[in-house]
Amino acid sequence: MQQVERSLDYAYVGRKDNKANFRTLWIIRLNAAVREEGMSYNRFISGLKKASVVIDRKMLADIAVNDNASFKQLVQIAKSA
Fold it and tell me: The pTM is what?
């Protein structure tokens, strides 16, 4: 019974850690993609917020990896804002 309770505790903590790890991965991917376009990550995110573009980091990272043309348009939107 003690082992089951301990396992449940570790599983709970592990699920929380996974969320943080994936967010870190998405930010790293975005930073690399934005730097290729000659912009910094924080300016990109603040530019998107000013332009009222509501896309989460998971989707932005997916677009950066899979659809380079769309990502370049998002960078241009962030730059203009």
Answer: 0.84
